[in-house]
Structure formats: structure tokens, C-alpha cells
Amino acid sequence: MNLEQALERVRTGPQGPEVAAFFDFDGTIVHGFSGVHFFRDRVLAGKVSASELAATMINGIRGTETEEDFERFVAIAFKAWRGHTEDELYEIGRRLFMTTIAGHLYPEAWQLIGAHQNAGHTVVIASSASRYQIQAAGDALGVEHILFTPLEVENGVLTGRVDGKSLWRSGKAEAARNFVETHGIDAEASYTYSNGGEDVEFLAVAGNPTATNPDRTLTRFAIERDWPIMRFRPRGTPGARELVRTAAAYGGMFGSVWTGLGLGLINRSRKTALDSIISIGTEVSLALAGVNVRIVGEANAWAARPAVFIFNHQSQLDPVVLAKVLRQDFTGVTKKEMANDPLFGPLLRFVGATFVDRTNTERAVAALGPVVDTLREGTSIVIAPEGTRSLTPAIGRFKKGAFHIAMQAGVPIVPVVIRNAGEILWKHSTLLRSGTVDVAVLEPIDVSGWSRENFGEHIAEVEDLYRRTLSSWPTD
């Protein structure tokens, strides 16, 4: 079963909160084992003794073939957390999610979770990890219900002991069955997703089990029981190939800048230079990086110009993707820090970008004044209304600036929805992966009828348009 078939199954199946979707965490929602990042964080901070490190590694090498093995392993692993407060561990979890774990989130898992949420289903993350390792991801994904291995806490401080049974193998299955009973869930109509052979009993809790990125054991069980198998694109760690592609992409981009400037000088035209930089630079850099851009609704990019083009922002790759889509006669609005960027600062200044001080509202408003004139003179503007790059593909709250500018200039808003750019170049990554970025250019939105009274409602409608587009991708 591929992802689109899985999404269609959710869209066309039973709707409502009595249907649950249970997701395993490590290997299903995120690539790899999130516990490694927690343990590494403590090692680097000098908070794990040599004996704790040795004991944990030995038990890891022994493997976890039985539930007794696993209970012994977690008893040693969580013992190292003794003396920490819950607040400390939640903070570590939030920091590690922002800096590392969010970069291992499977985009396909995010889409699946979103589809279940749009269907009104009760979404649950079930994991043998502690809540401190999962909560930040649950918050980012909008998942309220989390089943986890409980740890003993006294007066807000961890004792280092597990408080009950770990949620591994039968423990996870039992926790899922209890959730079904206590929340009035229709088990036969519900869904389970996991990657490990130890989760066969957990997957069987619901009527729609899916072996997701299954290991050998689960693959064998899934084939025997005729369960659908779904595999996500391996995330992996960027290596030499990605390093070479990234260097080539940057080299191609800046080589194209000099080519464009040369053409501009020959033709004595700044516009020629700009158009050449954009058209040549984006094509060359994307090709060298092994990145394909697949566009739906491309005609909408030309239906109404000048316009304010808005886009959802998760990756530094987004401006390059937008340049390929829009091609000419546009400039951008970006944070003031980019003006001093040694690589992109000079290029952004040359193309006439507006730099905004996001820490000072008055200065930001003043900086946007000339942008209205730019639009009236025939040049389109590109703005990310979220204001900053997001950690996940989820749509954040839109700020009002882009919409104010469109109303003042008397031009339409054109939504550009980008999917998968964060998978190719994540927020905290510097290396490009190869792959395909999907772009949907939606129909221009006339803002001439908007007023101060209904301004917020209209912006909320545009936000929702992005969410609906990401959950149900359009076709030409």
C-alpha cells in the first residue's frame, strides 16, 4: 500500500472520534530511535557515569528478545534520570525536538496523522519511551493522547524507577486495549501503525493494522496475516553524496549570479541581470542538487501580476523553489538578519529585497511602506506570512503584514503551497538531499472586499486553505 492509498482509505472510511488511530513513535513517526538523542545529551553534559554508560551499552548489545530483557534494559536506562525534575526533562525533550528529532520526522507520517485528524479521529501515540521523549512531538503534531512507559515521580523529581509495566510488546497492546475501552472507541473501525515485530499484538488491537516501515519479523507476520505494508522514504544521515550535491548547488547558484551580472552589463539592463540570475541560477542549482520541482496550477502564477505571493515556510530551499515557479518580475521580504548573510545578503540586496526588523513593530511597518510602491510599479512581492521557518510541515499562524500590503496596493494574494521542501533541506540542516518538491499555486484571492471588521476571519480562511491543500493535494 502506498501513501496515497493509505490517505484515501482514511478519507473514505468511517469518520468521527469513536474511530482511533494508534501510532507507534520510533521508526513509525520518526526515523530511528529518539532515546539515543536523550542519552547522548546526558553523556555530552557529563551527567552519565562510566558504569551507567557501560551497563546501558551492554544491555543494548544483548538485545531485547523477551519482555524480561526489555524491562531490565529500561530499568538501567531510566535509573540514569534519577534526581531530575519533570520540568527539566520536558525542557530537554523540547530542546532535542527542536534541534534534532523534528528533522527525523517522516513527512508521510505527518500527512497520515493529519488525515486522521481531518476525519475527526482520535489520534494516539503509543510508545515504550517516556512521556518526556514524546510530548514535544505530540504538541507539534497536535496529538493530545499519548501512551507511554510511566516513571516514578516523588514531589516532581524522578526516582529512577519505572512505575508499573513498560509499554513494550504486551504492555503496549494492553495500554491500547484499555484506551479503546475507556474512550468508547470502535476497535474494528480503528487503525494501528507500527514498524516492529514486537508490536504484532499491538497492531492486532484495531481492525485496520498497517505494518509501517516493518522490520523482518513484522514483514513476515504482515504477509502471513495479509496486513497492508507501507514504507516511507528512508531518512538516513546526510553523507558524502549530499555534501557534494550541496557544494555543487551553491557553486551553480553563485556562478549563475556572475553570468547574470555579465549579461546585465552587456545589455545595460538591471532587469536582464535579475531575470538571468533567477532563471539560470535556480535551474542550475536545483539540477546539481538532484531536486525536482513538480508544479500544480502553474497558470495561477501568471494569472494576476503584480501580486503578493505568500508561501508556507519550512526550508531554506523555499526561495529557490519559488524562483523556479515565478521566474521573473518579483522580489521578496525577509528578516533583517539576512542582509548580513555572507552568501545570500549581497544577492538579496541586489534583487531589491526588503529587510524587516521583526523585533521592532514600528520599524517593520515603516520598512513595508515602500513595498506597496514596488507593487504599484509592477513588481510582485513574495512573503512568508508565518514569519519564520517551521519545524514541521504544520501550518503556523499567519501574520497580517502580507495581507495589509495587498489591500493597500490593490493587488491580489496568490497562495503558493510547498510540500516536502523540509524533507530535502530541514530547518537546522545545511546539506541538501535529492528528491521532489511539490508546489501548488492556488487561484488568486481578491482582497478588495476585505475590511477591518472581517480581516482576521479572512486570514484564518487562507490558513485553513493551506491545511486543506496539504491534506488533500490538488491535481491539474
UniProtKB/TrEMBL annotation:
Checking InterPro entries in the record gives: AGP_acyltrans, HAD-like_sf, HAD_hydro_SerB1, HAD_sf, Plipid/glycerol_acylTrfase
**Domain characteristics, as noted in the entry:** The HXXXXD motif is essential for acyltransferase activity and may constitute the binding site for the phosphate moiety of the glycerol-3-phosphate.
Q: Which GO terms describe its cellular component?
A: membrane
* Protein's UniProt keywords contain Transferase: yes
State the EC number(s).
2.3.1.51
- Class of enzymatic activity (EC top level): transferase
Q: Which reaction does it catalyse?
A: a 1-acyl-sn-glycero-3-phosphate + an acyl-CoA = a 1,2-diacyl-sn-glycero-3-phosphate + CoA
Q: Which family does the record assign?
A: Belongs to the 1-acyl-sn-glycerol-3-phosphate acyltransferase family.
Q: Which GO terms describe its biological process?
A: phosphatidic acid biosynthetic process
* Superkingdom of source: Bacteria
Record key words, sorted: Acyltransferase, Hydrolase, Lipid biosynthesis, Lipid metabolism, Phospholipid biosynthesis, Phospholipid metabolism, Transferase
Report what the protein is called: 1-acyl-sn-glycerol-3-phosphate acyltransferase
Alphabetically, the GO molecular function entries are: 1-acylglycerol-3-phosphate O-acyltransferase activity; hydrolase activity
SMART domains this protein is in? Answer: PlsC
Under Pfam families, the record lists:
Acyltransferase (PF01553), HAD (PF12710)
Specify the Phospholipid/glycerol acyltransferase domain's residue ranges. Answer: 307-421
The family database entries (SUPFAM superfamilies) matched by this protein are listed as: Glycerol-3-phosphate (1)-acyltransferase (SSF69593), HAD-like (SSF56784)
